[in-house]
Amino acid sequence: MKILLQFPEGLKQKARELAAKYKEEGHEVFLSASACYGACDLALDEARWIKADKIVHVGHNRFIKKDLEIPVEYIPYYVDINIEKLENVLPEIKQFEKIALATTVQHIHQFEEMKAFFEKHGKKVVAAQGSVAKEVGQVLGCDASCITKVEDQIDAVVFVSSGAFHPLAINIKKPVFAFSPYDFSVKNIEEGVEKVRKRRKGAIAKALTCKNFGILLSTKPGQFAIETARSAKENLEKHGFKASILVANEFDPMSVNNFLEFDCFINTACPRIADDQEKFGKPILNMDMLHDLFEIIDAN
Asked: Dihedral of CA 167/170/172/174: which sign?
């Protein structure tokens, strides 16, 4: 079998190790060298060119539910955490009775252990499954709805994972405590979440002065939304704006900004692109933000 192995950036150092395993089994193995930003970002183009029989996508849970022209095997990459180190979170949440618990795919296999730890220490733990995430309590960069679904049932959020990318997707008005399983630190990221919220409100305010809109349509298999892009174009034109659909696999700010006529972008791809306003130098609105823009315009 001809196999294309695909890894996110942080796991590419594991590529040769896994490739050797498949080679020993008699398979012909290729490694995708393209950037990979998540489970939505499959290396289908590379697989087509080499006529691969299968893509093995390492590091994420299954995201794309429909059948694809080339079979995809998702292999999550799990990292164990020291459950007892969660005791560092307890002083930060001592005044909160009900907490939502969440983590990333790397630690989701220990979710029940984490939940049991906090319940042992007197907390009521609320957990839900997101809109597109596969597991209960799992947050994706584009989906923190496992938290927003239970916002009215909780006092605070405990998020277990390193880095700020995933917890900053949690857009609720409750305290969010991020625990790093690597240095065992605990940070209240409420201020960071509020900055993201204000940045997005600022983008909407700037968009009110814009006339020409570029609509970003990604060809990544898990992001492609042509009907959404068409709908955005139609609604913008109904409101008197000019709009064009820009198609790419990956949107580089320098390349996109060579279209000088656009003074605002509408994003139908990964919603976290809207957090890169500074790189683009122009407002970027996700579809919910575009809806808010229309509401403001229609109300005036």
From this structure: negative
